[in-house]
Amino acid sequence: MINGPVTKMDQRFSDPDAVATEWEETRHVLEAAELFWISTVRSDGRPHVSPLVAVWLDGAIHFSTGTDEQKAINLRENPHVILTTGCNDWKEGLDVVVEGDAVRATDEAMLARLAEAWTKKWDGQWQFEVRNGSFYHKEGGMALVFSVKPTKILAFGKGKFSHTRYQF
């Protein structure tokens, strides 16, 4: 993605004088976000939403989950996810919605890079060892790692309201 995604402003949901949010600003929000909300779908079709920590690296969002957590159970049958981040302030900020499929990450070199990214982003509060294609907490618990390459990202600017769509 040398030139970035295709960027479009949706005038239907934007102030008349608003401009599209630059991809660099949206990418910065994804890189800096300390908390995301993930939406998955249960086997009976009901939605499931949960907060989680994640990292943006190499054009994808990566997250981990225990094997018995509801999101992991849901992903076994349906990989489609939405991840959101932003702020709950009405007058300022940027809310971002990422759509894509969660794919299990098992490559140990990539997992090592991700473990380092988690440690760095949260000043050592999240530390993982990499073994057997998974993360392991120091306390011994195993976590699966998933990567979401976006198919679409929406950015909602506030104050001067804008709705920007990035297509990948």
TrEMBL record:
InterPro entries attached to this UniProt entry: F420H2_bilvrd_red/Heme_oxyg, Pyridox_Oxase_N, Split_barrel_FMN-bd
Domain Pyridoxamine 5'-phosphate oxidase N-terminal intervals: 24-135
Keyword list, A-Z: Oxidoreductase
GO CC annotation: cytosol
Pfam assignment, any one: PNPOx_N
GO MF: coenzyme F420 binding; oxidoreductase activity, acting on the CH-CH group of donors
SUPFAM superfamilies: FMN-binding split barrel
The protein's name: Pyridoxamine 5'-phosphate oxidase N-terminal domain-containing protein
UniProt source species: Dictyobacter alpinus
